[in-house]
TrEMBL record:
Sulfatase N-terminal domain residues: 11-396
Keyword DNA damage: no
Alphabetical keyword list: Calcium, Hydrolase, Membrane, Metal-binding, Transmembrane, Transmembrane helix
Organism name: Chelonoidis abingdonii (Abingdon island giant tortoise)
Pfam families linked to this entry: Sulfatase, Sulfatase_C
Segments traversing the membrane: 170-189, 195-221
Record has Signal as a keyword: no
UniProt protein name: Sulfatase N-terminal domain-containing protein
Lineage: Eukaryota, Metazoa, Chordata, Craniata, Vertebrata
InterPro entries referenced in this protein's UniProt entry, alphabetically: Alkaline_phosphatase_core_sf, Sulfatase, Sulfatase_CS, Sulfatase_N
Entry similarity comment: Belongs to the sulfatase family.
Gene3D superfamilies for this protein: 3.30.1120.10, Alkaline Phosphatase, subunit A, Helix hairpin bin
Amino acid sequence: PGSHASVSYKPNIVLILVDDLGIGDVGCYGNDTIRTPNIDRLAKEGVKLTQHIAAAPLCTPSRAAFLTGRYPIRSGMDATNDYRVIQWAGASGGLPPNETTFAKILQKQGYITGLIGKWHQGVNCESRNDYCHHPLNHGFDYFYGMPFSLMNDCQITQPPEKDRVLRTKLWLYSQTIGLAVLTLAIARLTGLVSVTWKIITCLAWFGFLFFASWFSSYGFIRYWDCILMRNHEITEQPMVVERTTSLILKEAISFIERNKHGPFLLFVSFLHVHTPLITTELFLGKSSYGLYGDNVEEMDWMVGKVLDAIDKKGLKNTTLTYFSSDHGGFLEAQGGKAQLGGWNGIYKGGKGMGGWEGGIRVPGIFRWPGVLPADTVIDEPTSLMDIYPTVAYLAGGIVPQDRVMDGWNLMPLLQGSIQHSEHEFLFHYCGMYLHAVRWHQKDSGALWKAHYVTPIFQPEGAGACYGRGICPCFGEGVTHHDPPLLFDLSRDPSEAKPLLPATEPLFDTVTSRIERAVQEHRQTLTPVPQQLSLHNIMWKPWLQPCCGTFPFCWCDKEDFSLHGPN
């Protein structure tokens, strides 16, 4: 449904998604210390959305919603426990094969589809090469990038990140067992105890097996997770992070060049600006905001190079270009005194927080010269889930009719043929738990937001969960609110002062209307297999993508491909 774009052809579509970028990190969204001239230019030549909302505050669920146009709870891609994203490249969870991505729709409409960069939606289901969750099984003709996600463990110089607390405990247990064996052996040799050698040997063997079992996964994270693939083939295991930026850029530009006769869909899913903030020499120390600022400025330069490639091939006016981030900036990412995560401007909270605006309100820019107005700002609520119906419509495709879709075609709003967003309610989940709901009351202009659950900040009043490293969705680390905390974002965008039943005459009316919407929404949910269950997120050696013969997984094929056929 909706108005027709005034074009009779299928446009090229370039979707740029940044990892962990905060809305306050970009010039055109009010940042005056970090330089982002290319993103700012995109906004100047197109439409800037100021209330663009991610469906989840973390990578895996947010990207699943982006790709499917559905809340991640519908595809089983949100958390039931504390593990809220896919944990290993060798795990069995991932975007279910029965979900239809927008890439699949566009593929059927004759588009050549490519994904360059981060995937983080799983790889295999049952065997090492079944590729059931792989991009090529989800509508992409070409894939180059990381099947997993960048993390500190990918850079040798960084302290480990994955399951840090658990790993510390396991190492401690191993040392304790080792010490016990040594003490017993010495005591036996000096005749202090009469334990048999058999018991000591058994204990030693147990200690060795215990150590080997956890070290085989955690001791080799760089080899298991930090890998680059081209289609189904592993090109680097482990990846050489220092050259990844230039390879990703080269691949994105080359995809545009070889498919210039179109129509093509290119999803550029940057590894920037996720920790460990891998930045090339060219940008180190160049920003006035430390390593994080350097990394953002390098990402902006990469955006510029992609835009240049579109321009040079004369495709600017026949290409819809979109720019966003998968969720808010990571406030708790710190190294010593340095802030290694983004800034979310006037909005409260950040990455990992399902309810507060800072976790889910992200940049959103559309450019299509001659079709969309230039230098335009839209304050209406929109969602990353809207990209799906929008691109499906432009490609002449039909969104799946056999399932609930949660996005809307944005073309009428972007072109100005309607004034209001078609989202009346947006539901803000943290894992499987509904934390907040926004109600866009079109007639009055009010923008109500009710919070049922909020994280407990550490230290108190700090604005994030610095003590835990990331805010939880449930358990002791959250507060439940009944009645809910209510805000009117049109008057209080920073969610600073909750409205009180005593002083807000509409309090009961608004909260009961939102409550009714929640009941109606819950009736549309159906049980699905949980992709992030403990069973699905565990490392499974038989699913580990491997270049070579497992466990001897190592290769570097990039040297050849830099000169060889591309």
